[in-house]
Sequence to fold (1041 residues):
Amino acid sequence: MKAEYSGEVMTLNMGPQHPSTHGVLRLELKTDGEIVADAVPHIGYLHRCFEKHAENIDYAAVGPYTDRMDYCAAMNMELGYVLTVEKLMGIQVNNRVRCIRIIMAELNRIASHLIAAGTYGNDIGSVTPYLWCFRDRETILDLFEETCGARLLYNYNWIGGLMADLRPGFEKKLVEFLDYFEPQVDNLNRLLSDNYIFIQRTAKVGILSPELAVSYGVTGPNLRGSGVKFDVRKDEPYLGYQDIDFEIPVGKGEHGPVGSCWDRYMVRIREVKESCRIVRQAVAQLTPGDVQESIPKRIKPPVGEIYMRTECPRGELGYYIVSDGGLKPYRLKVKSPCFTVMSAFREVSRGAMIADIIAILGSFDIVLGEIDR
Amino acid sequence: MLTYFRNLGLGLVTVLNSMGVAWRHLFTRSVTLQYPTVKWQMPEGSRMRLFNKIEDCIGCGQCARVCPTDCITIQTEKRGKDEPEIFASDGTVIKLRTYVFDIDMTRCCYCALCTFPCPTLCLVMTGAYEYSVYDKDEHIYHFAKDKPLTIKAPKVLSTDKA
Amino acid sequence: MTPGEIAALLTEGFGSRVLESKPDAINPWSAVEPSAILEIAQFVRSDERLSMDHLELLGGVDYKDRIEVVYVLFSMTHRHRYTLKCRMPREAPGIHTVESVWAVANWHEREAYDMFGIVFEGHSDLRRILCPDDWEGYPLRKDYKFPTTYRDMPV
Amino acid sequence: MESIAQLLRLIPKYEAFPQLVQALLPMLVSCVLIFAVLALAVLFAVWLERKVSAHIQDRLGPMYVGGWHGWAQTLADALKLLLKEDIVPASTDRILYKMAPYIVFLGAFAAFVVVPFGASSFVTDLNIGILYVVAVGSLSVVGIIMAGWASNNKYSLYGGMRAAAQIISYEIPSAIAIMAVVIPAGSLSMVEIVNAQKGGIQNWFVFRNPFIFLAFIVYFVASLAEVNRTPFDIPEAESELVAGYHTEYSGMRFAFFFLAEYANMFLVASVAATLFLGGWTQLLPASIAPQILPGPVLFFGKVLVLIFIQMWLRWSLPRVRVDQLMYLSWKVLLPISLVLVLGVGWLAVDW
Fold:
């Protein structure tokens, strides 16, 4: 909906303290009445200089810091970092550690997508899905707390293994949860996704064309929402994803052009179903073993550099580590998916209305901790 | 003209549909846990406040070295030859007297990296989560009981990182 | 295409301006003349054998004697990845922007400027992105001294 | 009001008062009575809303204040807001800022004069009753625009402008839908309309003919928009405009806005109940049993059902965008209500 605007312009500051900017983000809107001519995002309010910290503490101590980047999906953040250092040092982990890591990463993906769906309902105006999603997410957090003792920031993945093994009876509780959870997703769909008002609010809004998405380096559910079938778990399988069969949901544009807010939202909901399937297969592949057998006593990676990507719920997370053979990483650069999606926000939100700005921002599902690092 | 009425019908049907789902949830059991009267039952591995059994602590400083946020400060001094031999509960001999063992819970990031290298496993994370205080200094827990015999410049064991 | 072929393609295409290539490392890379970065970027993107249309990472690295800009490129169609590096002197690191080739470079270059002081000529609005606009010094440089106050507030 | 006047004559030496006081006193007493009824109803409605929203979202809602299921929660909130500091931002338009909440409440409160709670318990029987209600109902939008403009905050200004556009464009379909009831009832006075629906459920206008049933739905949807309830709560959209027109209000003024919103909700529900569901008339057909329940109990029962439906809608639907709101009013509700009036008029003429 490209509405050109005329007449003088009023700048409206949305943020950094605003109920629906998903964190401390400031949007400088140039508005004429309801139409927004230009939305300039300002970031940096949550910058905690993670990369400078990482250069001053040793490899194992960087783990808890990576949790703090994307606090909604901390498990996937640690996993990315740990896999990169293991690949640099050439450590092989046994099958039990790989399966537990897949289970934890996928459970964390379900929890993160539940936050995304819940807050998106809240941004569009209906509060009930928010409460329902957080009620289901609570069970996942209990499973995490029972295994590693923490609910949100786990430090569960260590370089070469895990902090603790699964408690007995964990698999039974997990399967019970999955059986209870899958019909709940259809419940949420009937309440929100198929609601005509919701479709009207999100279907023809915030169109991100595939070429624009690739050129802006958008990855993850936002890219798949635009119809590009690309997922690191299928494209460059790590951790044993190659012998788990699951599909990649892609936006098909059922209600209006491909790449609208509704498509991105629906890709996340379908991904939750796929994650449930992955967790079931990973639980089946669990084999007994010691989870801490290949944890090195002293972590001193060889001189060199490494770049590795993993599929975190918000997109493709990349760690670029340069090591000079010492105890501390020489340089650690993080490629954050939300950072690149945010750079495309200005392009996508040109000519939208104020209510659409919130809808577009919610459909990108950004977390400011990861953008500002 | 047809799409006008189709949209109208679609709007009505989906609105009634989502109202039906909401109606059914009116009668499902609510999941609220009324906190002050009913306490949350913590799983036994949960990582909340740190606790150090000072009798078993041999003052090695491993925990202070591995902590990412430097919230543990330890000061020890050699025990004299004449003093009686004391042993930790698991038999390791204690050669250093720790007269300062402070954990600053405001800086702690609850990552439990310190509980693993402890040789006598005296540093553990308990399940206590209700310890809010009015004054920040009360969050610095002092576990050491002995007094320093020879007063000398405090040698801070934890390497002072950036 | 394997990293070896990519390295060969680059040296054959640009000869002397490709300084050094290491296709067999864990992360295959080749060092490139900073002045030729825009041409190589356009070639790497437009050439259908390479078609690197996804700039994954653009980051600065501060080695004691030089500052490097690292471009990790990925191709959606051929599914292969390659890294380009440009080495610049520490005093006045400057390089041409690749924003016209990959739009994602806009914010990544602003972050490299903010953290290392690398000036990207031709960039649409080169401002600091993470630190406040009037922040002195470039935080991620190795010789960065922490300011004690910022606008006379203790830091 | 006549019954109140007789009651007052029982006071000894009532005739000694000057003539003017004798005329004004009944009005004052009935005004206080209406305010008390409204305040009690609002207290109950706020508590009900929190309980309904809680159970829809699998929560419990207020449980502690005042014992069983926290019945005194709203009273506690009102007291809290009374004690809260009443901030008036520096560069606001003082007079407008202070008057806005009272004007919004006035719009709802004044309309209760003509609403018949029971057979004889109404304040006056204006012969242009329903026209008066529609006229006074549009007063609250003036208050909202005053609040939006006076609090000198861009978000409030947006909220005020949106409220103006929304309420004006939804008054027309609701007024036309009311006409669909006035034609068969033959009179504008609310008491006449209720008398026309006496004698059991089959005489209610809602079931009189399909046109009036659709008019009831059109009126209900349009009244939702007039009261700023989801899916039309755009003036105070939490996720876009922070809190819309009452962003800068705090303390007692904010409580008054809250009171006004629920009073408006109450007014709209009572008008709908009087017009379409036969005000205080009985449910069972007159042939089976005469009216046993007193009028007001039946009336409040119907009003509570309608208020429950409004709350139920609020917690299960998302919010529409401003242009979709306008589309719904001008392109959907207005044509349909015109057709309905045509239909009702065609049926009312006995060929």
